[in-house]
Write a structure and sequence with these properties.
Blueprint: E1 4-9, H1 13-25, E2 29-35, H2 38-48, E3 52-55, H3 64-74, E4 79-84, H4 89-98, E5 102-105, H5 110-121, E6 126-127, H6 129-141, H7 147-150, H8 156-166, H9 171-178, H10 182-196, H11 201-211
Parallel strand pairs: 1-2, 1-3, 3-4, 4-5, 5-6
Helix pairs in contact: 2-3, 3-4, 8-10, 8-11, 9-10
């Protein structure tokens, strides 16, 4: 299998050097290039077509969230993994809206970063433990709208499965909770994505999160966001 090609985007030369050393030491990944600004990473992503971009948010000129949005507009197959110091809700959800597939804080262990690179490349939504805890707290304290009103285009079963998706449950876990065949759950998830006009679980989570604002219904226990055990 060919190594995953990774493009680094960070304005801190010392931090880039640390990531460069990490990638050089790992056999399954290789460094495709480095950028130190949002504008530069957009150009390099278009030219180099990496598998994954490790993207900082705060960079001179254009920030990493806007750079992510522009990269994915022309190259939606590239997996963007945010690697940043920012852990506030707005930064996390803005990154997800822009299309980022993962969000880690700087200071993550080397094994966590490599695991996340592999995960976003395979289509997973990856959150480091600190971010997962913040999202758990958000969904536990938010006041979400009734899904039947927020998403009338979904069937009752699809609304139920969307709540599990918002709780960051995998298809296998959803199937176990609802006593359904995994293939049945996959079909429901595909229908949900089509009806909501989203392309990934991360985008579906954002849609569910946005629907929860300004109403009075409390989320069920099934909507808890769990941490990825491999990142714990």
């Amino acid at each position: 299998m060919e190594p995953l090609r990774v493009l680094i985007a960070d304005d801190n030369a010392q931090f880039r050097a640390g990531l460069r050393a990490l990638l050089h030491a790992a056999s399954e990944v290789e460094l495709a290039g480095e950028a130190e600004s949002g504008k530069q990473v957009i150009g390099l992503a278009e030219t180099l077509q990496p598998d994954v971009v490790l993207m900082d948010i705060k960079m001179p000129g254009m920030n990493g969230i806007e750079a992510t949005r522009q990269i994915l507009r022309t190259s939606p197959h590239i997996g963007v993994l945010m690697l940043t110091m920012l852990e506030d809700d707005d930064s996390v959800f803005d990154a997800m809206r822009a299309g980022a597939r993962g969000y880690l804080l700087k200071g993550a262990l080397k094994a966590e970063i490599l695991r996340a690179i592999r995960g976003v490349c395979s289509g997973e939504a990856i959150f480091g433990p600190a971010i997962a805890r913040r999202l758990m707290q958000y969904f536990a304290s938010a006041r979400p709208a009734p899904f039947a009103l927020a998403f009338p285009q979904l069937t009752d079963r699809e609304q139920e499965i969307l709540q599990f998706i918002a709780g960051h449950q995998t298809n296998t876990e959803i199937a176990a909770h609802l006593s359904l065949a995994p293939k049945t759950v996959r079909n429901h998830v595909s229908n949900i994505f089509t009806k909501l006009q989203v392309a990934s679980r991360a985008e579906a989570i954002v849609r569910a999160r946005d629907a929860s604002l300004g109403t009075g219904q409390q989320p069920s226990r099934s909507t808890r966001l769990r941490e990825d055990p491999e990142l714990a």
